[in-house]
Specification:
Layout: E1 5-6, E2 18-22, E3 25-26, E4 32-37, E5 41-48, E6 55-63, E7 67-77, H1 103-121, E8 144-150, E9 158-162, E10 169-171, H2 183-196, E11 210-217, E12 224-230, H3 238-248, E13 252-259, E14 271-277, E15 280-285, E16 288-293, H4 302-316
Parallel strand pairs: 1-2, 5-7, 12-13
Antiparallel strand pairs: 2-6, 3-4, 4-5, 6-7, 8-9, 8-11, 9-10, 11-12, 13-14, 15-16
Length: 319
């Protein structure tokens, strides 16, 4: 049986060591923060998938000059703020970092991150407490998704998100964070792209064509815009497939092709072509009617963006 080193013992600590730690906070990236000696002292340890209040046995994986990195080997005592993730691959997928943390704790952490940024970096004096506007719908809110693709030799097409800190793709058929009306597109368009026989981009060899599937939805209008990102336009019968999708999905208002041939991690290239329908969806936002195209910036949480916009307008007492 392996026995963890009590966190109060002095260094040296080496990779592979097991430490008994109490997690006290979260980083903006979602890692737990612990210390090798008591609260606020000793060396900082960043522990992935940890929650404030967890008591864990952590295995040290990296030793940096000013901090340690570890992963949970076992939970001694789970935090009251630890919850079951809504997604079955939350521990693998890099799309989310905080699904195992209660929403109340997420809000408290974000509140502290904002306060630290404004007070310690900005030098401002803030009221107590800093107001925070929590969402009425912490899941199923995303109005935009862009899924990278991969096609391993002899295997079906994969589409999803990368594992955190890697380019290993986690295949998805649904996502509890995106608008639920987009799940059907993820499943069925992936199946269709497999059927087309179009090549999929291999970043290691800089070969192939299809790179990403982009989806946007108007939360108020239900309009959906579908965008394929490809290295080239050499996609046989693309127009026929686009028309088929337009007929199959009543809410689909446009199919676009974005061209990105650069050897880059940027998703979109500089040129977008409308293949069928129109190149932008319409959305209603805070009394405005907006047109949003494939590459436009727009907040992914429509309701929270509108709440924030309305709050700012009220604070300014605009006339």
């Amino acid at each position: 049986m392996e026995h963890p080193i009590p966190s109060g013992l002095p260094d040296p600590v080496k990779p592979g060591d097991l430490l008994a730690l109490e997690v006290t906070a979260l980083t903006p990236q979602g890692d737990g923060i612990a210390h090798t000696v008591g609260l606020g002292q000793g060396r900082v340890v960043f522990v992935s998938q940890a929650v404030p209040g967890d008591q864990v046995v952590a295995q040290i994986t990296e030793i940096k000059r000013n901090y340690l990195v570890g992963r949970i080997r076992s939970l001694i005592s789970p935090s009251p703020q630890r919850v079951r993730p809504a997604c079955i691959v939350a521990d693998k997928c890099g799309g989310c970092q905080w699904q195992h943390v209660s929403y109340a704790q997420q809000l408290a952490t974000k509140q502290q991150i904002l306060r630290d940024a404004l007070e310690r970096i900005g030098g401002l004096t803030l009221p107590q407490p800093v107001p925070i506007l929590g969402s009425q719908q912490p899941l199923r809110y995303r109005n935009k998704v862009t899924y990278p693709m991969a096609k391993p030799e002899g295997q079906p097409l994969r589409m999803g998100y990368y594992q955190r800190g890697s380019h290993r793709l986690v295949n998805l058929n649904q996502c509890p964070v995106q608008d639920e009306r987009l799940d059907v597109f993820l499943r069925e368009i992936k199946r269709d792209l497999q059927e087309t026989g179009w090549s999929v981009y291999d970043e290691s060899r800089h070969q192939g064509h299809l790179r990403h599937l982009g989806l946007r939805i108007g939360r108020r209008t239900r309009e959906v815009l579908l965008t394929l990102v490809s290295c080239s336009r050499r996609l046989p019968h693309l127009e026929s497939w686009a028309e088929r999708w337009m007929q199959r999905y009543p809410d689909l208002v446009g199919v676009c092709l974005n061209l990105n041939s650069a050897r880059t991690n940027a998703i979109f290239g500089p040129e977008t072509e409308v293949i069928a329908g129109r190149g932008a969806l319409r959305e209603e936002f805070a009394g405005f009617s907006l047109w949003i195209d494939s590459t436009s910036f727009f907040q992914v949480n429509t309701e929270q963006a509108e709440a924030f916009f309305t709050w700012i307008a009220d604070q300014l007492n605009l006339r």
